Amino acid sequence: RVKERGRGSYGFYQPQMNAHLLSRMKMEHAMRQALNHGHMAVHYQPQVDMATGCIVGAEALVRWTDPEFGVVSPGTFVPLAEESGYIVTLGAWVMEQAVKEAAHWMGCGTPLVVSVNVSALEFRQAGFVERISALLAQYGLPARWLELELTETVLLQDAQEMQQVLDALARLGVGLSIDDFGTGYSSLAYLKKLTIHRLKIDKSFVGGLPGDGGDCAIVQAIVSMGRALRIGVVAEGVETQAQRQALQGMGCDCYQGFLCAPAMPAADFRVRMAEPATGAKRIAKR
Ligand code: C2E
Ligand code: MG
Ligand code: MG
Ligand code: MG
């Protein structure tokens, strides 16, 4: 945005831009304080098996409640953290919380896969795989209970280097999923070449089910492709029974969405996953 103003315009007084920059800087400063002050938390959103209605996994989602700014949405602060590089610190913290939590679930005799979002910058850090391996060892969590969510943009970067990291993760036994599938620059070739375990259908497509013909066609195509390639498919942002039914009819494995539950604090999720007949199960059988 600054660039668009052109050369030589920086000296002019631009109150709007200054206010914007100031609030950005304030927010970034607050964000850097938030971890140490305990204002960040990791919440967990259930992933539900279509056929049985059982909770089969959870996505770890970071939450920030600031004394000054109130609840700040990840849609606002994650991009800020990505631009400033702070995502490396924040992401490492989220990863440790998630691995620790999944180890707790396993200790209770109910192991579940935890999915953690990984930004491009984190993924590119030297020693990324080694740090994950060390974390799993530290908490005694077998790698198969951890899944990393990458976006198509991550997969587009320096192909050779990326492939080496993905291969190392696959050897370790960590699951890999493609988040927001269909919204980035998809090169379908990588689905064949890389070890990808799951596709997460972006909620923008799910939102149009079952009425929108275009969304139905896209979702059906993704589900069919996933099945043919033996890659699991998870639908994101399922809010209604009609959407769930449409997805099940198309052969989708699994969903995530407010229909079952939003992301919740770790303590609430522990209670929820321990229920013999979960809300999700009742919905599926209705
Ligand atoms: P995402 O990874 O695609 O996560 C799914 C988003 O959809 C979450 O938003 C979740 O709360 C929301 N969602 C779940 N079910 C529904 C539903 O039924 N309807 C609607 N409308 N939304 C639903 P959230 O938590 O605000 O996160 C937004 C994005 O921020 C995430 O999108 C992810 O890209 C990023 N993010 C969140 N936590 C982390 C993190 O720990 N690390 C990184 N790198 N990114 C994160
Ligand atoms: Mg995600
Ligand atoms: Mg995402
Ligand atoms: Mg997504």
Automatic annotation (TrEMBL):
Residues 24-277 form the EAL domain. It comes from the Bacteria. This is Diguanylate cyclase/phosphodiesterase with PAS/PAC sensor(S).
